[in-house]
């Protein structure tokens, strides 16, 4: 079982990469007044037909040949539902997929966010040619990261794989996410 939402982000993003996406948007929305936490991942991969979009939520369905089960999305769906939320999946063949998991923010059984900065850095290093957009919205305060902006500074996407850049990015993401969450 995936223990936190950052692990779900990694799993979903891997699915997006396997679907040929070269632009992946990840959004975390925390709204204290509405008591909601939303995780959304959208990509421009090859998308799925309606039948496949239903099947991917079945734990005994997978497109992988290395194992016979695909538990990531079913576990995320179960977690969301246990926390008074839901999981929705919209996909259009040739256009991409949007997944949204919604949780009660104060649910004791809600998975913690986990290490989102390290997850984003891992994704950048593993797929440096992909445009990664990460948004963290907390009670109206917004932090947005776009790998395109960093790439313009670095000049070479392979530099996302260097230890020095990875450490700087992790700290940059962590500090800005904390600022969005705390408001200072």
Task: Report on this structure.
This protein is an alpha+beta fold and about 180 residues long. The chain has one domain: Heat Shock Protein 90 (2-Layer Sandwich). Helix content is about 40%, strand content about 25%. The protein has six helices and six strands. A six-stranded mixed beta sheet has the order 3-4-2-1-5-6. Helix 1 runs parallel beside helix 4 and helix 4 packs antiparallel against helix 6. The protein starts with a helix and ends with a helix.
Question: Which range best describes the helical content: under 10%, 10-25%, 25-40%, 40-55%, 55-70% or over 70%?
Answer: 25-40%
Mean pLDDT: 91
Which structural class do the helices and strands define? alpha+beta
Supply the number of helical segments. 6
How many strands appear in the DSSP assignment?
6
Strand order of the largest sheet: 3-4-2-1-5-6
Q: Examine the coordinates and then state which fold CATH places here, giving the name of the CATH topology.
A: Heat Shock Protein 90
The CATH architecture name reads 2-Layer Sandwich
Fold topology:
Blueprint: H1 5-18, E1 23-31, E2 36-43, H2 50-55, H3 72-82, E3 86-92, E4 96-104, H4 116-126, E5 131-138, E6 141-146, H5 147-154, H6 163-182
Write a brief caption for the model.
The protein contains six helices and six strands; from the N terminus they run αββααββαββαα.
